[in-house]
Structures are given as structure tokens and as C-alpha cells.
Design goal:
Distance between the termini: 12 Å
CATH architecture: 3-Layer(aba) Sandwich
Radius of gyration: 15 Å
Number of domains: 1
Strand content: 25-35%
Number of strands: 13
CATH superfamily: Class I glutamine amidotransferase (GATase) domain
Order of helices and strands: EHEHEHHEHEEEEEEEEEH
CATH class: Alpha Beta
Helix content: 25-40%
């Protein structure tokens, strides 16, 4: 059973639909006991960093997520979910993230000829040996929608990267913690394979 954490963020239903398409048993919930009973947990989301952290803290879900991480249960953050797993974000200075991994979320700098938010398909450079990207060819294309990007403190935590104005850490992997800035649930067969890899951990 996979628990999808519901904290009133956008894009939660599309993750659920992708998992059901893959034949995975899943539940979308904000009930701590249901999250703790799950084999794996996904933190999806589209929205603002500060609002999301406020909802997670006031609902008690921030503590639940930290407990899941410390229990060594596979945990996957998607888009805003990735950003929340790190320490801070330029989007809301002074607001601490979950701090599950070390690194910061930075604003994509403006550049002539480039649109922000970064929206569309980009190829990713995949780190050899990544469990999340098992059997995913290097330079595969995935779908992004974001104005902020991850700069992980340790290159060891970077599972995939891409280029859009700057060098972007597109995915992270550290022990039982996994995260994608892109949307695997909107990335065709490649994205479904990534989700399947997570479900098969």
C-alpha cells in the first residue's frame, strides 16, 4: 500500500491516477495512522513553498513525514514535494523546509529567450546506479513545471540533473528518501517507469 499525502496542494489526483494505472494499491490521506501503515509514502504537490509548509506544520503532517523518513520507509517527493524536503527556499525566505536532505531551493534567474516558469520537456542526465532511475536511459525526457530549482549540498544526493538557464538538480536520492523536481506522472512511459521503480523498492 502506498500513501499519498493530502495537504490541499495541487496535482495530487494525477499521482493517484498514475499509480492506479500501474496496478498499485494506494490511498490519498492526511490521517497519520494510515500514512504510518503504508509500505511507501509519496509527498506530491504544486503550489507555494511557504503556504505548503504552513499547512504541513499546522496539520501535524510535517512531524509525520519526518517520522516516516526516520523509520527508513521509502519516501518520494514530487515537484513541490521535492522542494519541501530540503532546508529552505528563495520563494519564502525565513521559512524552514522539512530538512530531510541538505540543500536549498533557488529561483531560476531570468535570461533573455527563456521563459519562467520552466515548463515543458527536458532531457535529464541520470546518475549510474540510481535505484529510482533503474533501466531509464540517460538523456530521457521528462516534464517540468517550476520557477525554483534544487541546489543540493552534496553531489552524492543528486540522482539526475538537467540544464535550463542554470544547472538544475532534477532528482535526489539518499537512503530511503527520493525526490523529483519534474512530474513523473506526466512524463509518459519514462515517468511511469520511474514511479514503478519507486513502488518496487
Amino acid at each position: 500500500m502506498i500513501a499519498i499525502i493530502d495537504y490541499d496542494a495541487g496535482n495530487i489526483k494525477s499521482v493517484e491516477k498514475a499509480l492506479l494505472y500501474l496496478g498499485e494499491e494506494c490511498i490519498t490521506t492526511r490521517v497519520p495512522d494510515e500514512i504510518y501503515k503504508a509500505d511507501k509514502v509519496i509527498l506530491p504537490g504544486v503550489g507555494a513553498f511557504g503556504d505548503a509548509m504552513n499547512k504541513l506544520e499546522t496539520s501535524g503532517l510535517a512531524k509525520v513525514i519526518k517520522n516516516v523518513a526516520s523509520d527508513n520507509k521509502p519516501l518520494l517527493g514530487i515537484c513541490l514535494g521535492l522542494q519541501l524536503m530540503f532546508e529552505s527556499s528563495d520563494e519564502m525566505p525565513g521559512v524552514a523546509g522539512l530538512g530531510l536532505l541538505k540543500g536549498r531551493i533557488l529561483a531560476i534567474p531570468p535570461k533573455e529567450g527563456y521563459k519562467i516558469p520552466h515548463m515543458g520537456w527536458n532531457s535529464i542526465s541520470v546518475k549510474a546506479g540510481s535505484r529510482l532511475f533503474k533501466d531509464i536511459p540517460d538523456n530521457s525526457y521528462v516534464y517540468f513545471v517550476h520557477s525554483y530549482y534544487l541546489k543540493a549540498e552534496s553531489e552524492e544526493d543528486v540522482a539526475a540533473s538537467t540544464e535550463y538557464i542554470v544547472h538544475i538538480h532534477a532528482a535526489a536520492e539518499h537512503g530511503n528518501i527520493f525526490a523529483c523536481q519534474f512530474h513523473p506522472e506526466k512524463s509518459g512511459g519514462t515517468g511511469l517507469k520511474i514511479l514503478k521503480n519507486f513502488c518496487s523498492l
